[in-house]
Design goal:
By secondary structure, the protein is of the alpha/beta class. It has helices at about 20-35, 40-50, 55-60, 70-85, 90, 115-125, 145-155, 165-180, 205-210, 240-245, 250, 260-270, 285-295; strands spanning about 95, 100-105, 135-140, 160-165, 185-190, 195, 220-225, 270-280, 300-305, 315-320. The protein has 2 domains: about 15-85, Ubiquitin-associated (UBA) domain (Helicase, Ruva Protein, domain 3, Orthogonal Bundle), CATH 1.10.8.10; about 95-320, Rossmann fold (3-Layer(aba) Sandwich). The protein contains 13 helices and 10 strands. The strands form 2 sheets. It has an 8-stranded mixed β-sheet, sandwiched between helices. Strands 1-2 form a two-stranded antiparallel ribbon. The relative contact order is 0.10.
Length: about 325
């Protein structure tokens, strides 16, 4: 019989179970790069760390470890959602702010590093000598509660009122206050800036609300806010992650984006003790107009504007005369 050549064995294409940690990370970066996702390498790392429940050091010291099928599937799903535009923070459910980890959901704005300048300015303007004082503070538009919780850490005897127009955002903020042990000093109220949405005159309020809220007309030592300040006409110019996924109520401050400052300044004027501070985050190009609003009312002094690390005017602070 004539000799027959043996057929070569068919080779299987690489499967998810054949991937090691290093290969999975490389594929993740490539997928996000192809979708033009900003900071693709960082996002791919974060997702793999999240799925594996490890830290960054482990990721690189175990780069040749095999990746289990279930881990690959979870990782791949996160990559696909991020490539479609969903923000990394919403996908993993957390964001760091002021050195603390906060829960974030699509109900709240994702805390930005530049917003930390609000805390820095407030701490500096109040001064070291008053850090232990029993201050009354209002965080207007609290969102995830990051500013309120950070201030509770910086001013251990302060009693804080945190308002937001969104009931869903307030639920997230309450969970974050509980996470960081600040529930007993922060009261959350659904309000439009400093005006309650639906005050119930017959309801009973906790001692904190009685002392510090809008219901009792007690004045505050500090009112701080990162308000919605983007003009409605600028919606199409925003990154898709912001425009399509973050809550519009926390982004847009009116037709020009400046309307909310006028309302906030007026309400703060009525709600601060003499010498009390108003500290607000500024939208891009808003500094001069907000200065004009402050000057026009004639009730403010010691106005300062602080730039962020990029040299952009970011925080305005003023004292009630």
């Amino acid at each position: 019989m004539p000799m027959t050549k043996s057929r070569p064995k068919a080779t299987k294409s690489p499967t998810a179970t054949a991937l090691d940690v290093r290969s999975a990370l490389k594929q993740g970066i490539a997928q996000l790069d192809a979708a033009a996702v900003p900071s693709s390498a960082l996002a791919a790392e974060i997702f793999l760390i999240y799925v594996l429940g490890r830290d960054r050091t482990w990721l690189y010291t175990h780069a040749s470890d095999p990746l289990e099928q279930t881990a690959w599937e979870k990782y791949s799903a996160l990559l696909t959602r991020r490539a479609s535009g969903e923000p990394t923070q919403y996908l993993i459910g957390t964001q760091e702010f002021w050195g603390l980890e906060f829960e974030v959901t699509p109900a709240v704005l994702i805390p930005r590093p530049e917003t930390e300048h609000l805390i820095e300015v407030a701490v500096e303007r109040i001064g070291v000598e008053r850090r232990e004082a029993r201050l009354g503070i209002a965080d207007v538009g609290t969102g995830s509660g990051g500013i309120a919780v950070a201030l509770a850490k910086e001013f251990p005897n302060a009693e804080i009122l945190a308002t937001d127009i969104s009931a869903a955002a307030l639920e997230v903020a309450r969970r974050n206050a509980s996470r960081h042990g600040a529930t007993d000093r922060i009261e959350f109220i659904e309000a439009d800036l400093l005006h309650p949405k639906s005050p119930d005159k017959n309801s009973s309020h906790s001692p904190l609300i009685t002392r510090h809220s809008l219901h009792s007309q007690r004045l505050f030592d500090l009112i701080i806010s990162n308000p919605p300040y983007i003009a409605e006409s600028e919606a199409e110019s925003l990154q898709r992650e912001v425009r399509d996924h973050e809550p519009a109520v926390a982004l847009f401050g009116g037709v020009t984006g400046l309307e909310i400052y006028e309302r906030l300044i007026e309400q703060a004027e009525d709600s601060l003790v003499p010498g009390g501070l108003l500290v607000v985050e500024l939208g891009y190009g808003a500094a001069e107009r907000v200065r004009e609003f402050i000057a026009a009312r004639g009730a403010w002094t010691d106005v300062s504007v602080t730039n962020d690390l990029a040299g952009i005017p970011r925080v305005l602070a003023a004292a009630k005369a």
